[in-house]
């Protein structure tokens, strides 16, 4: 390595350091602003709770309910029960509507995989780039 190459690389490293520091400073500023907004929101909440509630006050948006833990195998059992009501070709959205709830992603696909292994359904059209996988029920004649 020549002295010139050394100096060139050293300048590049120094420039990279300056860019990294600027990025870290910007991230720090964003965090500080976020903390300040949180502080202001909680200060407003504390002052609102001290005042009597007004009937015309806008309602706070409801927090989504945490996903309910289900007993082992219940999603598969529910899917078996809902299976006759599914159309001949369906996707995961149809399954969720039939179940009446949205199970965890992995649990749902594990149940569908189990039905495929049992020969109850097959993949009609595999997902690709934003298009959901389509499944098709296998008739008794097809199984034989």
Number of domains: 2
What's the main sheet like? 3 strands, antiparallel
Distance between the termini: 74 Å
What is the assigned CATH homologous superfamily of the largest domain?
Winged helix-like DNA-binding domain superfamily/Winged helix DNA-binding domain
- Pattern of helices and strands: HHEHHEEH
Rough outline:
flat
The number of strands is 3
Low-confidence stretches: none
Radius of gyration: 28 Å
Give me the secondary-structure category: mainly alpha
Helical region count?
Answer: 5
User: How confident overall, as mean pLDDT?
Assistant: 83
Sheet-strand content, in percent, reads 5-15%
CATH topology of the largest domain: Arc Repressor Mutant, subunit A
Report the CATH architecture of the largest domain.
Answer: Orthogonal Bundle
Report helical residue fraction. 55-70%
CATH class of the largest domain: Mainly Alpha
List the strand order in the largest sheet: 1-3-2
Summarize the structure in short.
This protein has 144 residues and is mainly α. The protein has 2 domains: 1-48; 74-143, Arc Repressor Mutant, subunit A, CATH 1.10.10.10. The chain has helices at residues 3-50, 74-82, 92-99, 105-118, 140-143; strands at 89-90, 121-125, 134-137.
Characterize the structure shown.
The structure is a single chain. Helices cover 58% and strands 8% of the residues. With 144 residues, the protein is mainly alpha-helical. It has a three-stranded antiparallel β-sheet. 6% of the residues are buried. The model has no long low-confidence stretch (mean pLDDT 83).
């Amino acid at each position: 390595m020549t002295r010139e190459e050394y100096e060139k690389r050293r300048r590049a490293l120094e420039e990279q350091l300056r860019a990294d520091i600027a990025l870290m400073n910007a991230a720090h500023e964003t965090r500080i602003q976020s903390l300040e907004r949180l502080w202001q929101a909680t200060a407003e909440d504390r002052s609102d709770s001290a005042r009597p509630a007004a009937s015309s006050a806008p309602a706070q948006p409801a927090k989504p309910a945490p996903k309910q833990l289900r007993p082992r195998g219940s999603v598969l059992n529910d899917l078996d029960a809902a299976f006759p009501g599914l159309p001949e070709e369906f996707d995961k959205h149809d399954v969720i509507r039939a179940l009446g709830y949205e199970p965890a992603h992995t649990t749902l696909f594990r149940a569908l995989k189990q039905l495929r292994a049992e020969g109850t359904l097959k993949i009609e059209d595999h997902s690709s780039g934003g298009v959901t996988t389509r499944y098709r029920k296998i008739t008794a004649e097809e199984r034989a």
